[in-house]
Amino acid sequence: MRRLTRTVATAALATALALVSACSSGSDSSDAKSGKGGGLEKVTYLTSFGNFGRDSYAWVAKEKGFFKDAGFDVEIKPGQGTGGVIQTIVGGQADFGPVDLTGSLLQVGNGQAKDFTVVAAIQQRTMAGIASVEGKNIATPKDLEGKKLADTPGSVVRNLFPTYARLAGVDASKVTWVNGEAQALIGTLASGAVDGIGQFVVGQPTIEVVAKKKAVMLPYSNVMQDLYGNVLITSSKIAKEKPEMVKKFTAALLKGLDYSLANSKEAGEILKKNVDAANPAAAAAELELMAAYVRSGNTGTALGTLDSGRVAKSIAILQGAGALKQNVTPEQIIDFSLAPKA
């Protein structure tokens, strides 16, 4: 980890703070603008949360021509967390995007969302967690009591926190949450305005660049080990009416994911090419950390697989913690016929 941190330590503060500024370019969009799309199907894709390295695989799939080869002209836009991505896709403003599976279960189980379908896994374990920096007297979950945390309202980290707190022995009523924008969270932590932020654990290198302090990470997976991380979703309408299209898009995206994990430095440079303010070293470091979450458990080399039994365990964890107001089944939100096979 120290080696990864050193690789990004020379990055400028302003650059790191602006990681999620979006700027669109790439082979697919160039064809579209020049009128040479060749009958490609237009697709709008949302990232999970801004344009960090953890989401760079979509830009890689675009830049390397994986989307084009599958028949798609893809526009990539920055997402704003699980709640925002679901709302945008269900509303018809986007076609695909990654959301945290646990967050989506919470949304469905509490009547906050419907009409979307999970079609593949991106990470086999949740990367959600709380991030702080040394000097804040936070070393264990219990230390969060009396502290102020920031995150976007629709973030899975924030929505899952009551369950995490209960299982980790934390009095959630003693923790104060304030709203923050995705692109400003790390800067807010670095400024000292809050004690911690909701953040995927792979954000550690970027946090240390910006804050110039050692990051302290509290992964949710330490207390909730059966939870999946991000999964790819589309609208229930698209899943029902265009199943072959969904399979082709999923395969192209996962090809980008596979390539990115094997070529993290190149993926970071591709992100930089498409997102002006991106930090390629930080992006590469995030991908290197993310690899263990994408391939874990008994999935072997197959990316994107989903296991009904594991999803049922996740639901049971949430039900046991009193986090779901109504019953949810794996088949209610996942179309296993569309997901990659193990």
Short description:
Helices cover 43% and strands 16% of the residues.
Describe this structure in words.
- This protein has 342 residues and is an alpha/beta fold.
- It has 16 helices and twelve strands.
- It has helices spanning 2-8, 13-17, 27-34, 56-63, 66-69, 82-90, 101-109, 156-168, 185-191, 204-211, 236-241, 243-262, 264-274, 280-294, 308-320, 330-333, and strands spanning 41-46, 49-50, 72-77, 79-80, 96-100, 116-121, 129-133, 148-151, 176-179, 196-198, 215-219, 230-235.
- The strands form four sheets. It has a five-stranded mixed beta sheet, covered by helices on one side. Strands 5-12-6 form a three-stranded antiparallel beta sheet, with helices on both faces.
- Helix 12 (243-262) crosses helix 13 (264-274) and helix 13 packs across helix 14 (280-294).
- The chain is globular.
- Mean pLDDT is 87; it is low at 1-37.
